[in-house]
Write a structure and sequence with these properties.
Elements lengths: L2 H5 L3 H17 L2 H28 L16
Helix pairs in contact: 2-3
Length: 73
C-alpha cells in the first residue's frame, strides 16, 4: 500500500486536482482557472462518495483515513 492510501481514500483525485491547480498557476489564465474549478467540482464530490461507500462496505475501514485532504476531509 502506498503512503497516500494510508491517509486518504482517494489520493489520485487529490493529485489530479493539484495538477490542475499547478496548470492554472502556470498559465495564469481564465481557462486554467476554469479547468481547475471544474476538476474540483467534479472530483471532490466523487471522493466523498467513494469514502462513504468504503466506510459502509468495510467494517474494518480505518477511522483515521479521510476522503480527500489528510486530517481534514
Amino acid at each position: 500500500m502506498t503512503m497516500a492510501f494510508r491517509y486518504l481514500s482517494c489520493p489520485n483525485y487529490l493529485g489530479e486536482m493539484l495538477e490542475w491547480c499547478g496548470r492554472a498557476l502556470a498559465t495564469w489564465s481564465p481557462a486554467g482557472l476554469a479547468f481547475f474549478l471544474y476538476a474540483v467540482a467534479n472530483l471532490a464530490p466523487r471522493a466523498l462518495a467513494n469514502h462513504r461507500w468504503y466506510r459502509r462496505r468495510f467494517d474494518d475501514y480505518p477511522n483515521r483515513r479521510k476522503a480527500l485532504i489528510p486530517g481534514v476531509v
